[in-house]
Design a protein that fits this description.
5% strand, mainly alpha, 2 strands, 5 helices, two-stranded antiparallel ribbon, 168 residues
Length: 168
């Protein structure tokens, strides 16, 4: 599979720009995983770390669900891989498959896109229970851009450790 990644516009409204950057970063993570086997997706760059490309995909499914479905939409549902709300469970990839992870991640991204598009504006607020305060859709989208950008750096190093591929 080859992921298509479209660069964000250089001139656009705030919401369009946030959507575009979020989709750009989502595509970047997918690109870092393109063409890899489950074994490759489980490979660690550093033996002492549990961080893998497969774990990052699973983690980002959790992040998408937490911020858009649980926080923005107020859905009462568990995390994808943990009934106890433990985000670290996503990084345990011993029995995980790429198909399972990508299916879950893509499903959560689809929910996120729907929730964002249905929101009246970026100023709509939601209660974020872990922080105990209200947050805006703008913050949710910015937080997701931050999460993806942060983890794209990890994905760069992980992919290079797998097969030497560098760059985005």
């Amino acid at each position: 599979m080859t992921t298509e990644r479209i660069g964000p516009p250089v001139i656009a409204g705030e919401r369009e720009m946030l959507r575009a950057f979020l989709d750009f970063h989502r595509a970047t993570l997918a690109m870092k995983c393109d063409g890899l086997s489950d074994e490759d997706l489980r490979r660690r760059a550093v033996p002492t770390s549990d961080l893998t490309l497969l774990g990052l995909v699973r983690h980002m499914a959790e992040v998408e669900r937490f911020w858009f479905r649980r926080t923005a939409a107020g859905e009462d549902l568990p995390l994808v891989w943990s009934d106890q709300g433990d985000f670290q469970v996503a990084f345990d990839v011993a029995a995980a498959t790429g198909k399972e992870a990508f299916d879950a991640w893509q499903a959560e991204v689809a929910h996120s896109r729907r929730i964002e598009r249905e929101a009246e504006s970026l100023d709509v607020t939601f209660h974020q229970p872990r922080w105990g305060e209200d947050v805006s859709l703008r913050l949710v989208m910015m937080h997701l851009v931050h999460e993806y950008a942060r983890h794209s750096g990890h994905a760069d190093l992980l992919r290079e450790a797998v097969d030497g591929t560098v760059g985005a």
